[in-house]
């Protein structure tokens, strides 16, 4: 099939199976967009009997909904500026059509333009020509509109073979409500035809001449009541059912004609015809022609199968005859080749090729096939015997002979003789190779020794057994001598390395153990055992001395001293001479380290009793370094006390008694009336009860409110004299400036810093802990 004819059939199939492309042709302001919107509005809501129109995709539905909303709100749709594709589905009775319309700018159909919409017009399936009888009243404009229509139809006529447009074409007179309102034409077909004849004679003539079964319709998207192009409040479209019904009928008629045309063009292209008939049945499910088309498809398939069967039968007969002749002459040729006394391998190949390349021989000539199989096996044995004799047997000859013996038991004796001859030939060949390898490696007896041993394992009953045993003994002696020389050299290297300064004893030990592992039966084993013991003893003594020396030089570096002895234990875990010493040294150093770390904290507390923060830090270090140390419990108790005083806590304080000099007496004679107030961090506690007329008052009073104190808070004690006329401060006792433990003054006897007989005695639950003396 030529490419041009195939392309033509593809186009025709596409028209029959694809969606229908409908050209809505008209100049600007002719009402195309309004007409499309009202077609959809009326047909989708059941207002056109027998017809329903649906939007196939969301963009089409949204576009039309927007236009309908404008019309129903009383605003005419704005002029179209962009080309928009609308996919609709038209239901006409049981028929269903997928339609594609395009809304576009009216100026794009002006004469001389080459816009993309023109390509859509050229490939459309039907045309709706829109003319506005009220919009082009001027003769020049009216002629120009008709010339645009003429230009479109001439392009269709130019491509046709019969001088027609080749597709359904209808003329729509839009906005016909205005004509009716002025009474210029009746609404019936005769009135419409007279109006078209009067105003659009050119278009009327071309439709009558070149468009068979064309039609003319007067339509109004708004109906009566429109004013200045604006839609009325109530829309009553006129004549919309005519174009849609005509379009459905004409499309079905065109599909039938095109399907018949396709049948005439390609009656044997059944797959293409089947696709088109399936599309026709889907589009017109109740069409009478669908059944006829299906019968024609079935008849075509039966006719094609009959032709194929006849051709197959003829071909099979020819092939069978050819194969029979091919097999006959192949067998006769192999027989003549055998009788010509050719070599056994050549005859065996000829019979093997006959069986391989003539698989149909048993079908046509069964007796010859059985004879050919027998001759193939017989000559295969003879060929193997010849090849073994001359030394050209293939590596897989033994496997082939074994398979042949199983396949043809009658040849078992002959096969066994060939196998024995082959084994003898292989033995001789292998012995020659062994002698060559031994001669080639005279200075390296190890590999030849293994070769001779391998030969004896492979051929234990060889006729060369005595010669092989003698050769084996000679090689073993040479190997033993070479091994002894290499072992002596290794031992001498060990001895020489051990005499060097700073010899690596670890490497020497590893080398000695490796020698013993690799040469378990060496004649020098006892000597190497002695060397190994000496190396181990020297390394043991050297490592323990390193640990001792480090401890002597660094008595206070406890962690590294422990590490040194630990390294010794790790290196000599399998039995060092000083394991016990190293273990005891580690324990002793750990105890010394524990005591030293604790002593540092204890000495700091003794020398700086107020620096409790540093003592706490050192005790934390002690616990971190010695979590199981001897003084861990005491250190933790001290740290608990430190954590408590680091934040504010409440303490109970009791004022016991006091002793004051006579200078505090009253001006009028008599002892003072004394009470006590405590100030902690600026907060006053008290006063205590007043003991009147007494220089040695005894209060035994516990302040009702606990004293709230934290580390660093200052403490002040004021003794108040409650005299006859007013209260006065008799004595002020303050903690030392910067004393972090000022509260401890309330846990015993306090005196003025300048001396004197004045004393106050307190008791409280605040206690400064002590640390036990280290050992």
What's the gist of this structure?
Helices cover 56% and strands 12% of the residues.
Structural summary, described in words:
This protein is α+β, with helices and mostly antiparallel strands and 775 residues long. Helices cover 56% and strands 12% of the residues. The strands form 4 sheets. A 7-stranded mixed beta sheet has the order 2-3-4-1-5-6-7. The chain has a 4-stranded antiparallel beta sheet with strand order 12-9-17-16, with no helix packed on it. A hairpin with an 8-residue loop joins β16 (749-750) and β17 (759-764). It is flat. The mean pLDDT is 83.
Kindly state the mean pLDDT as a whole number?
Answer: 83
Low-confidence stretches: none
User: What percent of the residues sit in helical stretches (DSSP H or I)?
Assistant: 55-70%
Number of helices: 24
Extended strand count: 17
Query: Which strand order does the major sheet show?
Result: 2-3-4-1-5-6-7
Backbone shape:
flat
Q: CA-to-CA gap between the ends? A: 116 Å
């Amino acid at each position: 099939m030529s490419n041009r004819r195939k392309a033509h059939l593809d186009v025709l199939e596409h028209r029959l199976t694809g969606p229908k492309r409908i050209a809505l042709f008209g100049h600007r302001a002719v009402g195309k967009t309004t007409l499309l919107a009202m077609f959809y509005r009326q047909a989708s809501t059941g207002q056109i009997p027998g017809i329903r129109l649906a939007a196939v995709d969301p963009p089409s539905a949204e576009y039309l909904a927007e236009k309908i909303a404008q019309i129903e709100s009383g605003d005419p749709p704005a002029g179209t500026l962009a080309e928009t594709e609308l996919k609709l589905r038209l239901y006409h009775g049981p028929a269903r059509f997928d339609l594609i319309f395009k809304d576009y700018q009216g100026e794009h159909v002006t004469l001389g333009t080459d816009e993309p919409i023109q390509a859509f017009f050229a490939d459309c399936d039907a045309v709706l020509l829109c003319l506005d009888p009220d919009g082009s009243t001027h003769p020049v404009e009216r002629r120009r509109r008709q010339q645009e229509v003429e230009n479109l139809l001439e392009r269709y006529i130019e491509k046709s073979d019969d001088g027609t447009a080749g597709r359904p074409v209808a003329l729509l007179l839009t906005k016909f409500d205005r004509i009716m309102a002025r009474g210029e034409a009746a609404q019936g077909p005769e009135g419409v035809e007279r109006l078209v004849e009067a105003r659009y004679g050119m278009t009327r003539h071309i439709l009558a001449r070149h468009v068979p079964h064309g039609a003319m319709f007067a339509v109004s998207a708004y109906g009566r009541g429109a004013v200045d192009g604006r839609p009325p409040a109530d829309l009553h479209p006129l004549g919309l059912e005519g174009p849609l019904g005509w379009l459905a009928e004409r499309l079905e008629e065109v599909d039938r004609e095109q399907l018949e045309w396709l049948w005439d063009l390609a009656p044997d292209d059944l797959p293409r015809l089947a696709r088109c008939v399936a599309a026709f049945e889907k589009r017109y499910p109740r069409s009478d022609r669908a059944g006829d088309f299906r019968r024609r498809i079935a008849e075509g398939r039966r006719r094609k199968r009959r032709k194929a069967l006849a051709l197959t039968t003829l071909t099979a007969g020819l092939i069978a005859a050819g194969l029979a002749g091919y097999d006959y002459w192949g067998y006769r040729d192999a027989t003549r080749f055998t009788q010509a006394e050719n070599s056994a391998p050549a005859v065996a190949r000829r019979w093997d090729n006959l069986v391989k390349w003539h698989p149909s021989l048993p079908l046509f000539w069964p007796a010859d096939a059985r004879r050919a199989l027998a001759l193939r096996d017989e000559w295969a044995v003879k060929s193997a015997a010849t090849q073994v004799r001359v030394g050209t047997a293939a590596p897989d000859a033994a496997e082939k002979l074994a398979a042949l013996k199983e396949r043809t038991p009658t040849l078992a004796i002959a096969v066994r003789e060939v196998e024995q001859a082959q084994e003898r030939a292989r033995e001789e060949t292998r012995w020659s190779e062994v002698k060559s390898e031994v001669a080639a490696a005279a200075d390296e007896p190890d590999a030849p020794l293994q070769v001779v041993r391998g030969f004896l394992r492979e051929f234990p009953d060889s006729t060369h057994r005595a010669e092989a045993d003698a050769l084996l003994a000679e090689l073993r002696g040479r190997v033993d001598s070479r091994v002894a020389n290499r072992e002596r050299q290794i031992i001498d290297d060990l001895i020489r390395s051990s005499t060097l300064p700073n010899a690596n004893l670890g490497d020497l030990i590893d080398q000695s153990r490796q020698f013993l592992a690799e040469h378990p039966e060496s004649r020098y084993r006892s000597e190497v055992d002695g060397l190994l013991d000496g190396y181990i003893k020297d390394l043991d003594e050297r490592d323990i001395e390193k640990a001792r020396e480090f401890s002597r030089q660094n008595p206070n570096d406890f962690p590294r001293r422990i590490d040194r002895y630990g390294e010794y234990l790790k290196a000599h875990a399998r039995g060092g001479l000083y394991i016990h010493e190293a273990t005891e040294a580690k324990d002793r150093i750990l105890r010394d380290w524990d005591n030293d770390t604790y002593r540092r904290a204890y000495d700091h507390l003794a020398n700086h009793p107020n620096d409790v923060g540093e003592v706490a830090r050192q005790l934390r270090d002690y616990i971190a370094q010695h979590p199981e140390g001897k003084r861990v419990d005491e250190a933790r108790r001290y740290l608990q006390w430190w954590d408590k005083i680091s934040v504010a806590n409440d303490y109970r304080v009791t004022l016991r008694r006091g002793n004051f000099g006579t200078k505090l007496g009253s001006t009028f004679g008599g002892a003072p009336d004394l009470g006590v107030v405590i100030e902690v961090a600026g907060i006053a506690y008290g006063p205590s009860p007043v003991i009147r007329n007494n220089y040695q008052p005894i209060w035994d009073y516990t302040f009702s409110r606990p004293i709230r104190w934290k580390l660093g808070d200052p403490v002040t004690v004021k003794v108040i004299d409650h005299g006859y006329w007013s209260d006065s401060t008799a004595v002020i006792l303050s903690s030392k400036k910067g004393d972090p433990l000022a509260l401890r003054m309330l846990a015993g006897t306090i005196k003025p810093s300048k001396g004197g007989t004045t004393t106050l005695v307190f008791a409280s639950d605040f206690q400064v802990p002590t640390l036990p003396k280290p050992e």
